[in-house]
């Protein structure tokens, strides 16, 4: 189980890190929906940094488990908020996108708590 937890955590961290990078680089496929959902531009840098910090926290958690758990909990809250934001914007077809980030983080958290 330990190896699985490490692999899932690293994949989740890389996936969330990619999301952070894409937001910080203001990739059109990321920022256009944020505009549509009504997320203020002034929030974008902080949201990107929060995701990046969470990704780093997941990796640090491989050595310091409490940091990984806290990072995972933070990311679960972040992506749950993203799902709620999409639902409030009534962009129901887009709910899958934040969920694609939420699921691996939940898996990493679950495996981290079980292991």
Can you walk through the features of this model?
By secondary structure, the protein is an all-alpha fold. The protein has one domain (2-114). The protein is 81% helix and 0% strand. The protein has helices spanning 2-24, 28-37, 44-60, 65-88, 96-114. It is globular, with a radius of gyration of 14 Å. The model has no long low-confidence stretch (mean pLDDT 96). Keywords: Membrane, Transmembrane, Transmembrane helix. One of its GO terms (cellular component) is membrane. This is Membrane protein.
Secondary structure tally: strands:
0
Radius of gyration (CA) equals 14 Å
Note the beta-strand portion.
Answer: under 5%
Main sheet characteristics: none
Report helical residue fraction. Answer: over 70%
What is the total domain count? 1
Uncertain residue ranges: none
String of helices and strands: HHHHH
User: Would you tell me the overall average pLDDT?
Assistant: 96
Quickly give the structural class. Answer: mainly alpha
Report the span from N to C terminus: 7 Å
């Amino acid at each position: 189980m330990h190896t699985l937890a490490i692999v899932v955590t690293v994949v989740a961290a890389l996936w969330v890190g990619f999301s952070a990078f894409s937001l910080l680089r203001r990739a059109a496929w990321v920022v256009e929906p944020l505009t549509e959902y009504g997320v203020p531009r002034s929030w974008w840098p902080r949201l990107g940094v929060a995701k990046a910090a969470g990704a780093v926290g997941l990796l640090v958690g491989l050595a310091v488990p409490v940091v990984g758990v806290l990072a995972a909990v933070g990311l679960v809250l972040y992506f749950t908020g993203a799902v709620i934001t999409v639902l409030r914007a009534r962009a129901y077809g887009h709910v899958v996108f934040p969920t694609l980030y939420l699921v691996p983080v939940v898996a990493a958290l679950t495996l981290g708590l079980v292991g």
